[in-house]
């Protein structure tokens, strides 16, 4: 970590070869899922666009060859992480929430959500420990029901 002339921290990082390989596998897995779900255009977050239009030319293999060629060197692509919160809310009633208080969907028995989407609303702060606690709680409750 460096400190800029303005006194603010400047964060930088370089992905390890192992992290880069996992990122490439993530690109490929995501592309295959998006294609199977009917996506018409796929693209990465590379600064120089890498894209693929299923059924209109190219292949997932040629797409991934280009993704791997572009790699993950610093400043070559944008990487971000976020927590989508409250999109499948837990709550006490099916008319105001997607999930019951145990994280189970109101409509599908034993389908449990265990991430930040089950928050009643966005917390406004990094919710990592809360996500871990909800995942643990919901998993334990589901496991107890299934035994």
In round numbers, the mean pLDDT is 90
What is the N-to-C order of secondary-structure elements (H for helix, E for strand)?
EEHEEHH
Inertia-based shape: extended
The overall strand count is: 4
Radius of gyration: 20 Å
Strand order of the largest sheet: 1-2
Counting DSSP H or I runs of 4 or more residues, the number of helices is 3
> Between the first and last Cα atoms, what is the distance in angstroms?
49 Å
Number of domains: 2
Write structural notes for this entry:
- With 147 residues, this protein is mostly helical.
- It has two domains: 14-70, no CATH class; 82-147, no CATH class.
- The chain contains three helices and four strands, in the order E-E-H-E-E-H-H.
- It has a two-stranded antiparallel ribbon with strand order 1-2. The protein has a two-stranded antiparallel ribbon with strand order 3-4.
- Helix 1 (17-36) packs antiparallel against helix 2.
- The longest helix has 20 residues, at 17-36.
- The mean pLDDT is 90.
Q: Key features?
A:
147 residues; mainly alpha; two-stranded antiparallel sheet; 4 strands; extended
How would you sum up this structure in a few lines?
By secondary structure, this protein is mainly alpha-helical. It has helices at 17-36, 60-70, 128-146, and strands at 2-3, 9-10, 42-43, 51-52.
Topology, element by element:
Layout: E1 2-3, E2 9-10, H1 17-36, E3 42-43, E4 51-52, H2 60-70, H3 128-146
Antiparallel strand pairs: 1-2, 3-4
Helix pairs in contact: 1-2
């Amino acid at each position: 970590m460096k400190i800029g002339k303005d006194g603010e921290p400047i964060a930088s990082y370089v992905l390890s070869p192992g992290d880069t390989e996992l990122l490439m596998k993530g690109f490929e897995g995501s592309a295959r899922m998006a294609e199977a779900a009917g996506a018409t255009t796929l693209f990465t977050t590379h600064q120089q666009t890498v894209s693929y239009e299923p059924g209109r030319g190219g292949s997932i293999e040629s797409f991934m060859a280009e993704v791997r060629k572009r790699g993950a060197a610093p400043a070559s692509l944008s990487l971000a992480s976020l927590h989508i919160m409250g999109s499948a809310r837990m709550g006490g009633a099916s008319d105001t929430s997607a999930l019951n208080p145990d994280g189970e969907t109101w409509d599908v028995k034993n389908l449990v959500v265990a991430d930040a989407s089950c928050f009643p609303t966005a917390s406004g702060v990094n919710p990592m420990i809360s996500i871990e606690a909800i995942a643990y709680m919901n998993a334990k409750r589901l496991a107890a029901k299934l035994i």
